[in-house]
User: What shape does this take?
Amino acid sequence: MKVAMATWEYPPRIVGGIAPHCEGLAKALSNLGHEVHVFTLDFPGAPDYEETQGIRIYRTRSEVGHPNFLTWVLLFNHFIEKRLADMSQAVDFDVLHVHDWLTAPSSIAIKHSLKKPLVFTAHSTENGRSGLHIPDSFTIDGIEWWATYEADKIIVTSGSMKWEVCGHFHTSDKKVEIIPNAIDLGKYNGAVDRWAVRARYGVQPHEKLVLCVGRLVPQKGIEYLLQAVPIVARYRQDAKFIIVGDGWYRDHLEWVANSTGQRWRIMFTGFIPDTDLVALTKSSDVLVVPSVYEPFGIVALEGMAAEVPIVVSQVGGLTEFVEHDRTGVLVHPRNPESIAWGIEHILSNPGHARWLTHNAKEVVQKTYGWEAIAKRTSRVYEEVIAEAVKK
Amino acid sequence: MSSTPLPPVPEEFRVLSMMHNIGAIIPERALTQDELAKWTGIEVGSVSDCLQRLRELGYVEHIEVNGVEKYHVTKVGIMKVLTLYS
Assistant: This one.
């Protein structure tokens, strides 16, 4: 099949989980023999066009900008649409696959002009991310609804996301397919000098390293982990906390960290390269995912693959692949006491923690590899193509 | 997440976001303080303060073109901006 995939983020333009998702899926589809064309936005230093591992990547520069975010989105969609239309002269695409609302306008336009089926992966919703408190959010919510309406099939990564999409957009559940996220397991196989990695971040051999990775935005619930720091410190004088990532909420989070009286235990690293992140994850004693909204929660899956015990909020997709006290520890969201309990439960039971990581790794290996996920996605493509032929 | 309104976005982050949306993400598209003030509708003095802080944080880079000071968003700055929208 010839697949045209549209996404606003694709490596090296990485914001959250969508970029690695699209890259992993594109590679796996290509390995299955499909011809994958990725249409995305430009990024300084990345070529406008490249072919890598069988994937053709078209990075489009928006020739015109505008300070208003939504106008900017419409403008870059216009240029992506032009590029897609140009390429469709040379390639007879079988299916269009759009990830999230940001590239939906161009994909919907191309769907109609080429008369090709459209698959929409809804990674999250504006209602879930931020709530509908400002006019921009209502517009984004409307575009998300439009994408669900126009799509021949909608893919979501968890049951909770299916419930959210069907409930919020009044979409038929027959139209929505759950295909979980996946990770590149090979990334976690290499050996790491655990003590050297920890030393780089100022963590001594006798100290316990609590790691949290994510965009610094409200939905990640990092303020509740920070509020848990003094509670953990009551029992654990040896605990250090590292927060990896960046985001517009960082100033507020640093303020919360300062107010704990334990600021010296907490380090904000900002964004770090992927290879460093893998090494740091593998060198940690516990990974905490304190999200208050999480359609899937790939960072937890990455922790499981890295064989680090995980403490995660009992929300969204996390509850669907983390089994409490068998593959990780579930805690109450927005609840510092519960998060502190989860961390202490792991740190004070090293034998149990090892058992959890063993079970978790087994689950990841069995279910969350890209090949299986790409095969399921291919079946969705086949289904919408067959339906389109009937029409 | 939908129950409480989000806290306001800091002023310098709004400037960073607008610079990004205008397209000032590479040296060839860098803009002067005056141009940024015009584009964003924010007073030159405020733009200047924001740029100073953004430079300190590594989100904006400063270049000189024919004796004129210009500013563009760095790669880390782009990633920071995009967190607002995802």
